[in-house]
């Protein structure tokens, strides 16, 4: 019985010393200087595939292609035709009164040489990066008389009612020229 306890204790000590040895290993760095792309940087991109709330779901992977070279201090840090990947972070389905909405998050860029760089950002839109989500069309309009004082006549004006139709799906078409905005600094150690 003592031998079994001694064997279990010995195995436990050996396992812990091996785990400690693995933790102390440091891998050599590649020797490149890193360049930091600051948060808030705008990257001009083109959509490589159609994104629609009608047939895409949350988590759907998307791809964009950089349309212009991006320079930082005379260094081309993101060349034209670099691929940027992401996914649909949020979809709101259409409802009565509101159109569908979509929010796209980007997670990495891949240079032509195949080097991947993690980034954090969104496909930019002035509406908090949400595409769509506006009011749907009114169900009907009322005619309202509008009196014009200067010409002394009355004209009819059309005013929408508060009732709204069912919302429509939102689509970001293939070839859409947009902007990716970085929400956190990106460290790159490779420039072409």
Give a brief rundown of this model:
Helices cover 11% and strands 43% of the residues. By secondary structure, the protein is mainly β.
Give the strand line-up of the largest sheet: 2-4-7-8-9-14
CATH architecture group name:
Beta Barrel
Give the tally of β-strands: 15
Which spans have pLDDT < 50 for at least 5 consecutive residues?
Answer: none
How many helices? The count is 1
Tell me the helix content: 10-25%
Q: What best-fitting shape do the alpha-carbon axes yield? A: elongated
Oligomer: single chain
Percent of residues in beta strands: 35-45%
Using the coordinates above, name the CATH class: Mainly Beta
Total domain units: 1
Radius of gyration: 28 Å
Instruction: Tell me the structural class.
Output: mainly beta
Cα separation of the termini: 66 Å
- Could you say what the CATH topology is called? Lipocalin
Order of helices and strands: HEEEEEEEEEEEEEEE
Mean pLDDT: 83
Report on the biggest sheet.
6 strands, antiparallel, barrel
């Amino acid at each position: 019985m003592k031998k079994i306890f001694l064997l279990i204790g010995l195995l436990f000590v050996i396992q812990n010393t091996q785990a400690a040895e693995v933790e102390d290993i440091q891998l050599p760095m590649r020797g490149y200087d890193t360049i930091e792309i600051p948060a808030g940087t705008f990257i001009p991109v083109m959509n490589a595939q159609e994104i629609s709330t009608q047939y895409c779901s949350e988590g759907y992977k998307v791809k964009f292609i950089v349309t212009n070279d991006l320079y930082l201090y005379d260094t081309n840090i993101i060349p034209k035709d670099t691929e940027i990947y992401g996914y649909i972070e949020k979809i709101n389905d259409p409802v009565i009164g509101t159109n569908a909405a979509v929010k796209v998050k980007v997670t990495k860029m891949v240079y032509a040489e195949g080097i991947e760089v993690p980034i954090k950002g969104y496909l930019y839109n002035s509406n908090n990066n949400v595409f769509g989500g506006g009011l749907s069309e009114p169900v009907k309009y009322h005619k309202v008389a509008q009196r014009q004082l200067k010409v002394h006549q009355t004209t009819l004006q059309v005013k929408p009612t508060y009732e709204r139709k069912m919302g429509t799906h939102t689509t970001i078409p293939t070839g859409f020229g947009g902007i990716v905005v970085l929400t956190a600094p990106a460290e790159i150690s490779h420039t072409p």
